[in-house]
Every structure is written in C-alpha cells, then in structure tokens.
Amino acid sequence: MSPISRYTEVRGGRKAAAGDVGRPPVGWALPGILFFAVFAIVPLAIAVYLSFCHWDGLNSPTPVGADNWTRLFKDHEFRQAAWLSLLLTTVSWAFQTPVALLLGVWAAGRQRSRTFLSAVFFIPLLLSTTAIAMLFHALLDPNFGVIKQIGPWFGVDPNIMGSSTGALLTVAFVGGWQFMPFHTLIYQGGARQIPEVLYQAAAIDGAGMLRQFFHITLPQLRNTITTSSVLMIVGSLTYFDTVLIMTKGGPGTDTTILPYLMYRTGFQTYDLGYAAAIATALVIVATGLSLILVRFSGFGAMRSTREGM
Fold this sequence. Notes:
Elements: H1 3-7, E1 10-11, E2 14-15, H2 30-50, E3 53-54, E4 62-63, H3 67-74, H4 76-107, H5 114-126, H6 129-139, H7 147-150, H8 164-192, H9 196-204, H10 209-220, H11 222-237, H12 241-246, H13 258-267, H14 272-297
Antiparallel strand pairs: 1-2, 3-4
C-alpha cells in the first residue's frame, strides 16, 4: 500500500483527498484567528471609522464624511512624509538585504567560529528599540559624542544628524543594525534547506563558490528573499521610536515619516480623526507594496524548492 493510500481515511463522513494528507483541522488555527481579529482587525476597523470623524480625544467622535481624506490628498506635509517613508524603506531594504543574505548563508556553514559569531550578531535584536536609539543618539551627539572624536578621522562631519541626508541614512542604519540579525536567521534557515547534492553536483562540474552562490544559492532562496523583503518593508514603514528619539522629525521636517506625522497630528495637535486617516493610509501603502512584491516575485504560486529531490 502506498503512503498516500495508507494515510487516506474517512474524516467527517467523507474520504480525505490526497492533498489533505498531513494537514491539521481548521480548528487548530482558531486561536490564532481570534487573536489576530481582536488585536489587528478590530483596531484597524476602529481606525478606519475614526478617519471619517473629527475627534479631539476627549469628546465623542463627530462624523465629518470624507473631509479628512480630502484634506489628506491636498496636504503637502503628508505627501512629503509619504515620500520620505518610501525613501527610508528603499534605503533600509538595500542596506539590510545583501548583508543579511550573506551573513545568513555564511552562518549556515560549518565554520568553527560560526556558533559564537552568530550569537554575537544576534545581540542587537535582544535590545529594545528605545535603548538602541538613545545609545546612538548619545554616540552621534556633535558636542559630546564619540562622533566628535572619530568623525574627522574618516572625513565624516560630526554634525551628521544636522543634514537631511545624514539624518535619514542614520535612521536607516540604526534600524538595520537592530533588525538585520532577524533577517539573517531567516536566510540561515533557508540556506540550510538547500539540498547538499546540488552543491556536490556543481563541484563535480567544476563550479566554484561564486558560481554556486549565484546559480544555486540565490535561486533556491528566492522565496526566502520575498518573505524577508515583505517583513522588512512593513517594518521600515512603521519606524517611529527611532525617529522620535534620534531626530524628532528633523532637521526641519526632513525625517518626518508617516508614523511620526501620525503621532504628531494625533498627540500634539489632538486631531485624532486626521491622524486615523494617516494611519489608515499607511496600512494601505504597506499592504499594497507587500502585495505588489508577492505578485511580481511569484511568491503566491510558491512550490517547494525541494520538489523532485
């Protein structure tokens, strides 16, 4: 009897199809679905409702129709914040992805120092974002920070946070420094799933390490790259505490990204209805970018890379 026939059984009065083998009942996902609904769907629905209201946080929300959304599309500050958010996301992705990919592939090897160095690389992820932002804010202080002493050695202006480009790049670097270990773990797990026989066959054919990386490792990690990129995009679009502590949206408004604009609108000017519209727009942008990435990467039709092995 074949393995599929052996595991085919009658479930709930019907014979299970071959594709159902090994799949747990839907009820197993119920706790996760309820948790997601209570802590994600319900708050999002409330935010969408408030985006059509005027609310100062004290009195009851007053419906104002699409006024907040009309104001949103005419607001120059919102358009600038949206552009800065996309720019920060792009820079963060371009910085984190190659480094995390290379570290993950390296950590999947059998080097003697791999375990120790992997543990060291993981340390930034254990620290809170607030603590890391405060640490770098102190290190980059142009008057008292380390940057004042070592900056001139490398031709770096000690007041790097005083320029729009320097401030944005610093925020991207600090966020990447903290969350790169997480993506390294993702790539490490993906690299360990690549069948060793592929590398053995390539070595017999005379392929070196570089050709093996580009012709075996990268293609096999395609779906892993998509997963990491989606998480990275959503995370970069929601940077807030790093900006709040390190730049406060400055210099001027050069690092005022959408999450910080939402905070400032809601909790400094008490225009929580308009802040809810900004938050909803942020969710739409993040979801849209993730869906586009999944669509054009072929991730939606993903099949096992080990199929046929």
